[in-house]
Endoglucanase (Daucus carota subsp. sativus), 479 residues
Amino acid sequence: MMAKKMVFLAMVTLMSMMGKVVIADDVKLDYTEALTKSILFFEGQRSGKLPNNQRLTWRKDSGLRDGFDQGVDLVGGYYDAGDNIKFSFPMAFTTTVLAWSVIEFGNSMDSDLNHALEAIRWSTDYLIKCTNTPGVVYAQLEDMDTPRTAFAVSAQSPGSEVSAEIAAALSASSIVFRRSDRKYSDFLLRRAIQVFDFADKYQGSYNDSIGRWVCPHYCDFSGYQDELVWGAAWLHKATNKTSYWKYVMENIHKVESPQNEGSLYEFGWDTKNAGINVLVSKYILNNKQHSSPFLHWADKFACSLLPESLNPSVEFTPGGLMYKPGMVNSQRVTALSFLLVVYARYLKQSDRVIACDRFVATPYRLTYFARTQVDYILGKNPMNMSYMVGYGEKFPERIHHRASSLPSIDQEPHLGHGWDYFWSNNTNYNLLIGAIVGGPDINDQYNDTRHDAGHSEPATYVNAPLVGLLSYFKANYGS
């Protein structure tokens, strides 16, 4: 009863801060359906030779000679968002979080678990190819409008952020496959160790080596030290070796400091700080090290997201959605909400609450707030629309996505650039089911047009944390 009373008071506080909140209370949400579709989305992002069990059949084979002109096989993997470029940095982050979702909530996925494993393996198979050549990590493959040139980092031209994130992805995935495919799991872990050693030995940002091509799409703005600590933390979780824990402890000061506090509330493909603290917190709590700085920063992160906080790290739309300036706001909503639910789970297991600036945050409070964010995405919002394609009665139909907006190649084999389709006001030809678009603006308004990429473009790293969230809510709140 006390937890529910606190939630009620928190929501009263939120409403008084923002004025009247208009929410469609009669919207019925089906977390099971949303989970299925959130995983299905990844099949629409596949590159390479598609399998016979491909469910989104409008997506066809593509990039079948990627890397061949440079003597390497780089066929496969995912397109990150609405175009046809493959970026290893955000792809690896997507894989890490997908794997983390399965580690935490796989038992709740039921029949969707196998599809989640397929989604992870589609990426890890590609990341293995990107790291097959010792001392080289392939970081990008250019668009279809170019010769599909591949760009790599090396000892002479380092890229610690992309290499360490790949190490994190392979480490997390090795945990996922430990039960079902031990041989594959062991291979992933061996490769993760090799790639992390490379990232650590030859330190430097890929901004300086291949920035001409990776920027402005995925410039590294937060530095590469967070990825190195993040990679070591995942290797520690996968191996339980003290050497990796020692690495985390000896290098965390390069990432976290009071002078760098703002980034401690961030988590996404570029910045891993909040993710490090939440991931490591489980080890800290299990060992009853309650005075740890990792818990301190994880607590501050969680408190800063709640609307009743005196020192919020986010803004809120009038309808209650977390909002941060920049493109594709939904990536922050899903990633930060995912961390809240994971941290709440760790807190509940250790029978712990958080003392925020003027209130106590229980695990229930954290998960309740995260659920409001997911519910907003699925349709409980002032626009009364779902921001997941193919879910609900009203959803975005003109998303910024090349393959979705063009006729499938079996209908129009000689399409060319297809600019007429881009500028058209017609709905997209193909439903990219499960895609989460960037979402509404700060005023809860959404203009359904593919011309506004910041709000209408989906991305793999938006869906990855949502898979975990939906699995949790499906198990705890039914359909």
Remarks:
- Residues 1-20 have pLDDT under 50 and may be disordered.
- The first helix runs from residue 2 to 18.
- The chain has one domain: 2-29+65-388.
- Residues 170 and 188 are 5 Å apart (CA to CA).
